Amino acid sequence: MKKKEKITKKAVPSGVKVVRTPQLLRGMKDLLPRDEFVWRQMRAVAQHIAVAYGFMEIETPIVEEASLFIRSIGRGTDVVEKEMYVFEDRDGTKVALRPEATAGIVRAYISHGMQNMPQPVKLWTLGAMFRHDRPQAGRYRQFHQFDCEAIGERDPIVDAELMVVAYNFLRDLGIDVRLDVNSMGSTEDRARYVEELLAYLRTKRSYLCEDCKKRLGRNPLRVLDCKQEQCAPVIEEAPQIIDWLSDASKNYFMKVLEYLDEVGIPYMLRATLVRGLDYYTDTVFELYAEEAPQAHSGEESGQDGAQTALGGGGRYDLLFEQLGGHPTPACGFAIGLERVASHLRSIAAENTASRPLDRPRVFVAQLGEQARRRALHIIEDLRRAGIVVRHHLGKPSLKAQLELANKYGTTHAFIIGQKEVQDGTIIVRDMESGIQETIDQKKVRVEVEKIMKG
Ligand code: AMP
Q: Which of 193, 264, 357, 422 could be joined to 244 by an S-S link, Cβ 3.0–4.6 Å?
């Protein structure tokens, strides 16, 4: 220990300030180039599926008035009470980083008069959300959601369609999905049920965990969401909301299920499913992966993955009034992309065939100033044809370039030197066997396309 101190002192001469490198904040995550493939895949599938079902893209600001979220998500929820990033901006306005997408989209719908458009207005977005959550497996403080909302129509088919979109998004990415559904009924149904639930939970208070004891006073529905083992038997015996639904709410819910049956989407009725956010009414749903993801290097263990929802949503017919808009029915969902990404990495690790196919397979190498200029043209011609190749025109040494070609995992190098510039040719080298052949420069594009098709 003493020795170490001595070395440190020696290494930093007196009078020299040690500059500390700022660290990544807790709960935040860099998306690195090694993750690029899964993120590109998720974004592409999200866009494809949203457009296919007639959703239009919207992007709302990350920073909004804090009151937007406080009023929509509700006091007494963990998101508002404990997790929101709230601060005063330089004008003294109380602002927040969005913890979810729905509230911002609803605000945009109201402020841009979208009620004058044909209803429902179907909107989708994909972006970063912020919650000062306790960092743990699958929980970050900045995370991304794929979010779809259908605003302006109350019809069970709208609810069913949103579940189909969410389900198909995950299925199209190759994830085996389980869809859990429930109904929270109308506000009146819910109020009667909460009274009943509270009476029951009070009799079981001593069996509940400390968090749930606090929830009794603030938001008893959240007890049903608790993952603590000691609360499980209490939750199992609790009264079920389905028994407290009015006939109208029950009929609405039955219709939703019939439409799901119609399109062949399997689902499970889960009586204890109540979504954490205050604005839900009627249909609520969550999506789970059938299998937990494998933990990967640089990532926390995903052991609880099977129990952690990939996404969820539901109907929120009362939110608009809460935000000062006209009564407007709506339904939506959000899927957490970090959790989806960790499943996709597991799938890719198991199945090498699903590894990045669009990774460049060709490296263009050059030797000498003339060759470098020619290489520039070749790369540019390929790029115009939509073909991406690797290169490092700044490196003069051919050996160093071929080492890079190997590191990138490219299968072929196209090499051009002084002689090839004069002959109008280029050397094609198979990186694995080392076999080389010379081809006409005019044939580069055809040859690269052949290689890419593999
Ligand atoms: P919620 O808006 O709470 O219904 O969350 C919808 C989805 O977003 C969840 O199912 C998760 O996949 C994801 N999600 C929520 N909170 C976090 C978080 N702190 N870190 C990562 N993903 C999250």
A: 193
Q: How far apart are CA 93 and CA 273, in angstroms?
A: 37
pLDDT confidence of residue 304 = 44
- Cβ-in-10-Å burial (0-12, 13-18, 19+) of 302 comes to buried
Mutate to test the pocket of ligand 1, among 132, 143, 277, 315 (most ligand atoms within 8 A of CB): 143
Closest atom, ligand 1, to C-alpha of 337: 12
How many Å lie between the centroid of ligand 1 and the Cα of residue 143? 8
Tokens of 189: 């149904």
> Where residue 16 falls among pLDDT bands split at 50, 70, 90?
confident
Residue with tokens 């040690």: 18
Q: Distance, CA 420 to ligand 1 centroid (Å)? A: 56
- pTM here is 0.85
Q: What are phi and psi of 331, to 5 degrees?
A: -150, 145
Rounded distance between C-alpha atoms, residue 429 and residue 405, angstroms: 11
Nearest CA to ligand 1 atom 14: 336
Is the pLDDT at 313 greater than 50, yes or no?
yes
Q: How far is the CA of 336 from the centre of ligand 1 (A)?
A: 5
Distance CA 126, CA 156 (A): 25
Asked if residues 317 and 347 have their Cβ atoms less than 8 Å apart, the reply is no
Identity of the highest mean pLDDT range in 204-213, 222-231, 251-260 = 251-260
Q: DSSP 3-state assignment of 439? A: strand
Q: Which residues line ligand 1 (CB under 6 A)?
A: 100, 131, 133, 138-140, 143, 145, 276, 309-312, 334, 336, 338-339
Mean pLDDT score of the chain, rounded to an integer? 90
